[in-house]
Amino acid sequence: MTDQLPGLYVRDLRVSFDGFTAVDGVSLDVAPGDIRFLIGPNGAGKTTLVDAVTGLVRATGSVRFGDRELLGRPVHRISRLGVGRTFQTSTVFEELTVLQNLDIAAGARRGWATLLRRRHGIPDEVAEALEVIGLAGRADQLAGTLAHGQKQWLEIGMLLVQDARLLLLDEPVAGMSHEERDATGELLEQVSRDRTVVVIEHDMDFLRRFARTVTVLHAGRVLSEGSVAQVQADPRVQEVYLGHPVDAGPTPLEA
Amino acid sequence: MTTVARDSRTVVDPAPPPAKPAAGPSRHRFRAVAGFAFGAALLFAVAPLVLSDFRLSLLAKYLCVAMVAIGIGLAWGRGGMLALGQGVFFGLGGYAMAMHLKLADAGPGNMPDFMLLYGQLDELPLWWRPFASPWFALPATVLLPMAVAFVLGSLVFRRRVRGAYFAILSQALAAAMVILLIGQQGTTGGTNGLTDIQGFFGYDLDDPVNQRMVYFIIAGTLLALLALARHLMQCRYGELLVAVRDGEERVRFLGYDPATVKLVAYVVAAGMAGLAGALFVPAVGIISPALIGIVPSIEFVIGVAVGGRATLLGPVLGAVAVAWARTALSERFPGGWTYLQGLLFVVVVAFLPGGLASLIGLARRGDGERWFGRLRRTRRTEGQAS
């Protein structure tokens, strides 16, 4: 906790499936405490990049989190190094309560002696996460009965109690109402105080409000990188989104 | 800190569902103790008074099947592993016990009767010898199945074999074991199995009093296994097991190795099946390939499905009910039972995936109307579609 917050350093990352190259030599750095948005058209390799970082697919190159190399480790080991992720579809354990979901997320480092005992009361980190994600009043509710937005917050809460130092979120606000998006954005700002956050997102309004830096991927490569304004002004980005360079009118990021 | 919390309350309008009267831990415990006391009274007082010796020995047999069912409930209902080959572990436990009892019947230094009968061997095979000692044979009835399950599970779960593939694999194992046993007639008794077991640690099994004692041992063991299963389901491990069942990948991303989580449930289930097999032998007096092959393995699962696989008591009641129905109906309609059993399985899987136990849950919540309402609605929409 007290040690320096690590950043994410990706070098020349390549992922191929049966000859198709989904990620084609991506290099990018995410500074500690950043909120980095990954955007790009469908098939740009955003989710595959996250899959490679979290060990779900094989990749070549190098992915370091702080000074630790992640590539080549199994999924659960990478997770224990402090890398947490969510998926496009919510994947909370619907048959378990909110409290049980969080308790399981908090418990990967528990020994068998603890696992084979019953939970008594609410662990501190779980109680804290319940407050942060605003579900304290629903701790005993089955996760399957939560509203869509609440499920996404529960996912983020699970990453918090898991003590993930790097959060990789795949379209966290898809399907959310405006108010829910704002709440989610504020949640991200709050958790980024002592964590590094990477968000895959299509929602440009959400991006403009909450992104600190942006990386645009296209066809498996980094097309552009920088602040929201810098990326917005990049003619290559406009070309990818509109099919031709534009010198006037609204850019896709403003549309 | 609290901004999000406040927002979420204004953002999300649906109120939390009507709060159920929260049963505190003490009430839970009271209900459990009361339940166990009731079960013990039923098994230890009512059943021996009401049932004839013959029926009581049948019940002893059913309770052995119920022990296997508890394990399947854990592995399949809670862990999502459709263990279609529990006969293997039942058989390992049964054969380990039967080998010891056969050797004890024969007396020290002698060979079991069937070996003399087939007359191929001059002396006891090497791998039979340790079973002469109860100190080896009794632990082996449980540890041997657990060891086999551990090796198999380690290989299978790490390679992420699951679902139907796991079910088929476990069933193939049951078939392989039967073939092995039948092929080695000289040392295993072949198709006949190990039969005509006379004594149980010095007690004559023909004596009804001793049969009754065996019944009490079985009933006590069943209650102990129920208590163990209840604890495993309610401790943190039990919650984790359900999480693995519903989202194995997600659990992996939380930093657990799901293979280990599943392995524990599978090995425990194998140990329960082994113990059941071991106690089946003195209750019935025989263990044979026909009792542990594919068909009995499937029948174990049917009982669990009918009762309700994810509950604690469902598998036990389902297993006893199906085994009882089988006996009762076979007495009257020989041959008809197979069809009825198949029908029962289809009906439960298609219309009541949670088993009969889910009916109780529905009734308690007063959801019966809703459930039937849904059926009616389904029918109506189907009518509109056609």
TrEMBL record, chain A:
Record-annotated ABC transporter domain positions: 8-244
Keyword ATP-binding belongs to the record: yes
Superkingdom field: Bacteria
PROSITE patterns noted in UniProt: ABC_TRANSPORTER_2
Gene3D superfamilies for this protein: P-loop containing nucleotide triphosphate hydrolases
Pfam families: ABC_tran (PF00005), BCA_ABC_TP_C (PF12399)
Record's keyword annotation contains Cytoplasm: no
GO molecular function annotations of the record: ATP binding
Xref: SMART domains: AAA
UniProt keyword list: ATP-binding, Nucleotide-binding, Transport
UniProt cross-references to CDD domains, sorted A to Z: ABC_Mj1267_LivG_branched (cd03219)
Protein name per the record: ABC transporter ATP-binding protein
Organism the protein comes from: Micromonospora gifhornensis
Automatic annotation (TrEMBL), chain B:
CDD domains, sorted: TM_PBP1_LivM_like (cd06581)
Chief subcellular location: membrane
Residue numbers spanned by region Disordered: 1-26
Protein name: Urea ABC transporter permease subunit UrtC
Intracellular or extracellular location(s): Cell membrane
Alphabetical keyword list: Cell membrane, Membrane, Transmembrane, Transmembrane helix
Membrane association type: Multi-pass membrane protein
Keyword field contains RNA-binding: no
Species annotation: Micromonospora gifhornensis
InterPro entries: ABC_transp_permease, ABC_transptr_urea_perm_UrtC, LivM-like
Transmembrane regions listed in the UniProt entry: 30-50, 56-76, 83-101, 135-157, 164-183, 213-229, 263-288, 300-325, 337-363
Superkingdom to which the source organism belongs: Bacteria
NCBIfam families, sorted: urea_trans_UrtC
Biased composition (Basic and acidic residues): 1-10
